TrEMBL record:
Membrane topology, from the record: Multi-pass membrane protein
Source organism of the structure: Candidatus Woesebacteria bacterium RIFCSPLOWO2_01_FULL_44_14
Listed name of the protein: Major facilitator superfamily (MFS) profile domain-containing protein
GO cellular component: plasma membrane
Residue stretches making up the Major facilitator superfamily (MFS) profile domain: 10-215
Chief localisation class: membrane
Gene Ontology MF term list: transmembrane transporter activity
Superkingdom classification of source: Bacteria
């Protein structure tokens, strides 16, 4: 009984962790609408589409992301302060959002492959910076709980949207669905603004200047 009363006593998740989590809930939930049916989109809506194209598209995304994220991670680690992390994260999130809108205009396999490159670059920029900020600001002695809260929230969001995506695609079409994904990602990007007041190195100390007055 005492355990149940004290289980969450004194737990306070700091503002940076909250906003990073809110951002990913929106973005991952948005992409959760299309992730389960993306292969169907490639085979039904792309000229000459096939399961092989879906597999190659996934390969291009992961390969691009893998090539980008290590240099990006090294760059932000070497820079002082956290504003470089923030803007790198924002740039990556915006590219991810743009890639969703680009799928609206995809007609051929080449279009898909190019969009996957954009998506991969966005992921390669966003994820290292996001992880760096989350790691630095996570509350001491609450690491396990805060990571678990993050994954629980994002997994529940993806679970709720996974089944909804197929219904929306059948009702309004795949291209309308990608518009929804794009706006959900942009909403996630907007939530990143909530971390700015807590970033290190964003304040400039100003010396007090006394101006003598003529008597």
């Amino acid at each position: 009984m005492r355990l149940s009363k004290n289980f969450l006593k004194g737990v306070r998740v700091n503002q940076v962790i909250q906003y990073l989590t809110y951002s990913d809930i929106l973005m991952l939930s948005g992409w959760g609408l299309v992730s389960p049916i993306i292969a169907v989109f490639f085979t039904e809506q792309i000229e000459g589409g096939s399961v092989a194209i879906a597999g190659l598209a996934a390969t291009i995304y992961f390969l691009t992301k893998s090539l980008v994220q290590i240099p990006v991670a090294r760059f932000i680690d070497l820079k002082k302060g956290e504003w470089d992390d923030f803007w790198t994260m924002v740039a990556g999130t915006l590219l991810i959002s743009v890639s969703a809108f680009l799928f609206v205009f995809a007609r051929t396999p080449i279009h898909v492959y190019l969009i996957q490159v954009v998506y991969g670059v966005g992921g390669g920029l966003a994820y290292p910076a996001w992880l760096a900020l989350f790691t630095r600001h996570i509350d001491k002695k609450e690491e396990g709980l805060e990571w678990s809260l993050y994954y629980t929230a994002t997994d529940l969001g993806a679970a709720l949207t996974a089944g909804l995506g197929g219904l929306l695609a059948a009702t309004f079409g795949y291209r309308s669905l990608f518009v929804i994904v794009g706006f959900a990602s942009l909403a996630g990007a907007a939530f990143l603004a909530g971390v700015t007041r807590k970033l290190k190195g964003h304040k400039i100390a100003l010396k007090k200047i006394e101006i003598p007055l003529a008597v």
